Amino acid sequence: MDSYLLTQNRDQINQQNSIHFLEEGKVLFFPEYFFREVAPDLMTETILDGSRKNISYDPSYKRMSAYKKESGLGSKLTHMMQGYADFSYQLIQATLPSYAPYLRWGRTSFRPAQIDGRLSSKRKDDRRLHVDSFSASPVHGLRILRVFCNINPNEEPRTWNLGEPFPQVLERFASQISPYNMFKARVLKLLKITKTLRSAYDHYMLHLHDKMKLDDGYQAQVQKVQVNFPARSTWIVFTDQVSHAALSGQHLLEQTFYLPVEHMLNPNSSPLRQWQKIRPEV
Ligand SMILES: [Fe+2]
Q1: How high is the pLDDT of residue 2?
Q2: What distances in angstroms separate CA 128 from CA 67, 78, 81, 124, one per listed residue?
Q3: CA of 245 to the centre of ligand 1 (A)
Q4: Residues 63, 68, 73, CA angle at the centre, nearest 5°?
Q5: CB under 8 Å to 96, separation ≥6 — which residues?
Q6: How far is the CA of 244 from the centre of ligand 1 (A)?
Q7: How far is the centre of ligand 1, averaged over its atoms, from the C-alpha of 146 (Å)?
Q8: CA of 128 to the centre of ligand 1 (A)
Q9: Cα(142) to centroid(ligand 1), Å
Q10: From the centroid of its chain, how far is CA 16?
Q11: How far is the CA of 235 from the centre of ligand 1 (A)?
């Protein structure tokens, strides 16, 4: 398990190791550092409005979605979500300071529901190993950097599987993915299936995500390790690179950031640069 995690003490952070190992595909793990401003009455899945399993907050526009408006907990929720967005940014400033000026804000997410198997398809089942790619929201090569915090009040861990390194994933699946088609991408945009034009990179990453999840043999046989992130712990990971599966757990906060590849210490370790070596149109 140690080869998958880099354990850090919040008060004695080794910044050089952090950035190096994160970019190599390790998870930065803070076993005793966590977001504290959590109101106990928010720790219930009845706060969801039923449309989704996550409450989503946009820190740039201070807008929240998917929570039950009648709950009367809107302002408490906003306070928690904004607090977590600030907590995440400050942790990155302390741990990965060279990234901080270049980060773009993504969504803050609160996941108060237990992970379970009542899902409509394998493609949507995050209990299967995958790398992250967003079907409706192209990233155009930006890195997906996420800060997770297990805020479970009942000592329940968040349990993940971590799979093989990205170059091996790519080697296994890249040749199975059909070439990018700009015409199809334009149609998807026209039909508002994607918010912006799906780039070649987004096409290949989305199909990589799908190929991994849909392959039963791969899911069963690939080398993986189970990791329990305990209650009151935090971890940072490039989820577009690290093969991961969320098996169980309830009550999680997550902040997404996007980072341009050129602001990495070693851009060649990015999925973008690795795809460019085998698909010149990326
Ligand atoms: Fe994921």
Answers
A1: 57
A2: 27, 31, 27, 9
A3: 7
A4: 75
A5: 15, 18, 19, 22, 236
A6: 6
A7: 10
A8: 9
A9: 16
A10: 22
A11: 14
Distance 125 CA to ligand 1 centre (A): 9
Task: Please name the amino acid found at residue 157.
Answer: P
Q: How far is the CA of 85 from the centre of ligand 1 (A)?
A: 19
Contact yes or no for 243/166 (Cβ under 8 A): yes
Cα(268)–Cα(276) distance, rounded to whole angstroms?
10
Alpha carbon of 209 to ligand 1 centroid (Å): 9
> pLDDT per position in the chain (282 positions), as tens?
557 888 988 888 888 899 999 999 999 999 999 999 998 999 999 999 888 889 999 999 999 988 888 888 889 999 999 999 999 999 999 999 999 999 999 999 999 998 876 666 899 999 999 999 999 999 999 999 999 999 999 999 999 999 999 999 999 999 999 999 999 999 999 999 999 999 999 999 999 999 999 999 999 999 999 999 999 999 999 999 999 999 999 999 999 999 999 999 999 999 999 999 999 999
CA 132–ligand 1 middle distance (angstroms):
5
**pLDDT digit string (tens) for 130-182?**
999 999 999 999 999 999 999 999 999 999 999 999 999 999 999 999 999 99
Is the pTM higher than 0.90? The answer reads yes
Calculate the alpha carbon distances from 52 to 34, 55, 97, 241 in Å: 25, 7, 34, 25
State how far Cα 88 lies from the chain centre: 13
Q: Are 130 and 211 a contacting pair, CB within 8 Å?
A: no
Beta bridge partners of 70: none
Q: Report the sign of the C-alpha dihedral through residues 66, 51, 38, 26, in that order.
A: negative
- Residue appearing with tokens 């504290």: 36
Cα torsion angle, 164, 169, 171, 172, sign: positive
What is the whole-number distance in angstroms between the Cα of residue 41 and the centre of ligand 1?
A: 27
